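Q: Can someone sanity-check these two? First one:
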Amino acid sequence: MVTVLGLLLAGGSTAGAAEPVCDAAGFRAFDFWVGEWTVTLPDGRAAGSNRIERRQGGCLLHEQWQGAAGGTGTSMNVYDPAAGLWRQLWVSPGTLIEIAGNLEDGSMVLEGTITYLADARTKAFRGTWTPLPDGRVRQVFEEAGEDAAWQPWFEGIYAPVAR
């Protein structure tokens, strides 16, 4: 298993060249998030920049976050056709997020957990990405509070970087 996973991660394959397998609609459902973005808070203050790229023949969305205050993070986002779900694994200094879900009323909604690495504390976590009519994307993250009600964690407005 480890050897096969290593080959896949390195880009190797035991099969010959084949038609793209990640072109079906499920694999394209999160494409609205692909791009280079300037991210602001709802009040207009700079939050950071983000680059989301298709990789591995379109089977992976790779995120590279750079916060305005210097923080960083990376996520891998994949569509799991067997489960019919998108899965995200986010890693940054201090947090690990594992969430899964799909499109709901035009928004990508992924739920799971956030783990704070310093003390291994885990909470329920949810992310929602909504494409806006003007080409921007609104991202909202929430975590479960002590009463299990969703509490705001982060909200950002993604604007495409002008080229």
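And here is the second, same format, sequence then tokens:
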Amino acid sequence: MRILLLPAFGLALLSGCAGNPPPVSSADLTVLQDGGMPVPGRTDVMPEARQAVIGPLDKLGIDVYGISELSMQALVDGAGQISMPLVGVLEVGGKTPSEVSREIERQLRTYVRDPSVSVNLLESVSQAVTVDGAVIEPGLYPVSGNMTLMRTIASAKGLTESAKLDDVVILRTVGDQRYAGLYNLGAIRRGAYADPTVYANDVVIVGDSPMQRFLQNVAPLVPLVTTPLIVLLQRNGN
């Protein structure tokens, strides 16, 4: 009987993954070789605020200056309405808080001299983006400020190890038309093009790589695969 040692080979299954190329300058991107980044201005760190729009199941805070009895919190019902003393049922769905405050002031003038009303959106359920696919925590996430694709994925606690960076889709409905935008997250990270804006009711889907998932399943077996195998061959007289 003779003993044949087979060399290790399992690590070859996981090798060959090249690193991402460095970013290069383009019309929309300036790459600084010495790292001397300019200091951002006020408008750079405080982008233009996006107007909040009220929707069903949102919670509003209504403050009528000097009249505590009329100050309240209101939950918007499924039809986009709230009910308020002296005002009655009020349509608020699809309006901004400032539009609602002006409408309440208009209706209160019948009972109150020069009313001053402020309306704040305390909790928003309607202004949310759906994140699905190869992210760590899929779900609904609120859209606030200047929401972008990378910020949305960060809200979902980032990508899984099997995420496919070049297979990211944003689904959006405008009017009666549905759109699907295809994005390469790896290219966005490298600065090849701008991080796209995400809006309420968008659906973000991150693709999954079957091969990457397969390598994840194989990884725990690598110590076994790379251990030299001892094969006993029966001498056959050759």
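A (reply): Looked at the second one. Helices lie at 42-45, 97-108, 149-155, 185-189, 210-218, 222-226. The longest helix spans residues 97-108.
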